[in-house]
């Protein structure tokens, strides 16, 4: 399990409990390259140099500067930055609750798992999580991560909470400038009907495990070819062209897609599915109905 990004307290009004934030995603398995010296075969390194003299600046001589006017800077030491403490530096205080559907997906940024930090106060964590689950609401709070205060959306996930940092309003560009040139033409009903049929035939459950990064896969094949001394052969994927005859393309697309499953075939239980699982689901449904009543 990765080390926590942040530790502090989760707070709801006067209720608080120690928690830790853990990154929910990882890019560790992505291919990464080093910049090499072609002539020596060794890795390069970057130097911090003085913009006037061109001389390297040693780490102990580097300092952060904030430009207050042209070529006029205020030096700020790391220790001085670290001394700035506000409430959200150590506390995730839930300011308010909103319906999840009210949060536009474009504001979602980076996800973190929020879990109790030890057993002390775990009961408070569970109460907050379960109350949010039963009310079907998500919390909006603030937290300082990497020397920046971020808004976070907090929602129940499994036995814990998911905290997703939110972009601020000035970080999200308005779509108007990009979409204003799109016309409002009236579309033929037949074209729409065929397009909707194609969508129905291609409808499936979301399964990220089926996604394979084909670009990275091609990179690995290229690297393996060079490692083994084999000739590098990269197939160029064909590029699509703008559709000349839209109706003809829609009809041919419909012909190549398998028919969508009917309600009967969707409802038919797979032979591989245990009958006990069906009975269990039915039982859970009755229990849920009794709780609802």
Give a quick precis of the structure.
With 293 residues, this protein is of the alpha+beta class. It has a domain at 6-27 and 84-168: Beta Barrel (Ku70, Chain: A, Domain 2). 30% of the residues lie in helices and 22% in strands.
Topology:
Elements: E1 6-12, E2 15-23, E3 64-69, E4 72-76, H1 78-82, H2 87-90, E5 91-93, E6 96-98, E7 108-116, H3 122-135, E8 138-144, E9 149-157, E10 160-166, H4 176-179, H5 189-201, H6 214-227, H7 246-256, H8 263-267, H9 275-292
Parallel strand pairs: 1-5
Antiparallel strand pairs: 1-2, 2-7, 3-4, 6-8, 7-10, 8-9, 9-10
Helix pairs in contact: 5-7
How many strands, what sense, and barrel or not for the largest sheet? 8 strands, mixed
Q: What count of helical segments does DSSP give?
A: 9
How far the N terminus sits from the C terminus, by CA atoms, comes to 42 Å
Mean pLDDT: 86
Structural class: alpha+beta
Give a description of the structure:
The chain is an alpha+beta fold and 293 residues long. The protein has a domain of 107 residues: Beta Barrel (Ku70, Chain: A, Domain 2), CATH 2.40.290. 30% of the residues lie in helices and 22% in strands. It has an 8-stranded mixed beta sheet. A two-stranded antiparallel ribbon has the order 3-4. Helix 5 packs parallel to helix 7. The longest helix has 18 residues. The protein is extended and about 65 Å long. The two termini are 42 Å apart. The C terminus is likely disordered.
Key terms for this structure?
9 helices, Ku70, Chain: A, Domain 2, extended, 8-stranded mixed sheet, two-stranded antiparallel sheet, disordered C terminus, 30% helix, alpha+beta, 293 residues
């Amino acid at each position: 399990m990765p080390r926590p990004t942040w530790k502090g307290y989760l707070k709801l009004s006067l209720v608080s409990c120690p928690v830790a934030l853990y990154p929910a995603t990882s890019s560790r398995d992505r291919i990464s390259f080093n910049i090499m010296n072609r002539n020596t075969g060794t890795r390069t390194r970057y130097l911090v140099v003085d913009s006037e003299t061109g001389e390297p600046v040693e780490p102990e001589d580097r300092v952060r500067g904030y430009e207050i006017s042209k070529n006029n800077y205020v030096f700020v030491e790391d220790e001085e930055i670290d001394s700035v403490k506000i409430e959200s530096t150590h506390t995730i205080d839930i300011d308010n609750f909103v319906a999840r559907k009210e949060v536009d997906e474009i504001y979602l940024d980076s996800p973190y798992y929020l879990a109790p930090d030890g057993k002390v106060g775990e009961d408070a964590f569970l109460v907050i999580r379960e109350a949010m689950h039963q009310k079907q609401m998500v919390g909006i709070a603030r937290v300082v991560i990497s020397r920046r205060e971020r808004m976070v959306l907090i929602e129940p996930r499994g036995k814990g909470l998911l905290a997703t940092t939110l972009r601020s309003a000035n970080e999200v560009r308005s779509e108007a400038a990009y979409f204003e040139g799109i016309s409002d033409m009236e579309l033929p009903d037949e074209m729409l009907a065929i397009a909707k049929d194609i969508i129905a035939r291609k409808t499936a459950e979301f399964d990220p495990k089926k996604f394979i990064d084909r670009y990275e896969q091609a990179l690995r094949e290229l690297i393996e070819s060079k490692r083994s001394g084999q000739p590098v052969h990269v197939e160029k994927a064909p590029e699509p062209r703008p559709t000349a005859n839209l109706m003809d393309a829609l009809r041919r697309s419909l012909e190549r897609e398998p028919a969508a499953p009917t309600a009967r075939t969707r409802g038919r239980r797979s032979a591989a599915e245990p009958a006990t699982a069906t009975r269990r689901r039915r039982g859970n449904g009755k229990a849920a109905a009794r709780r609802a009543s």
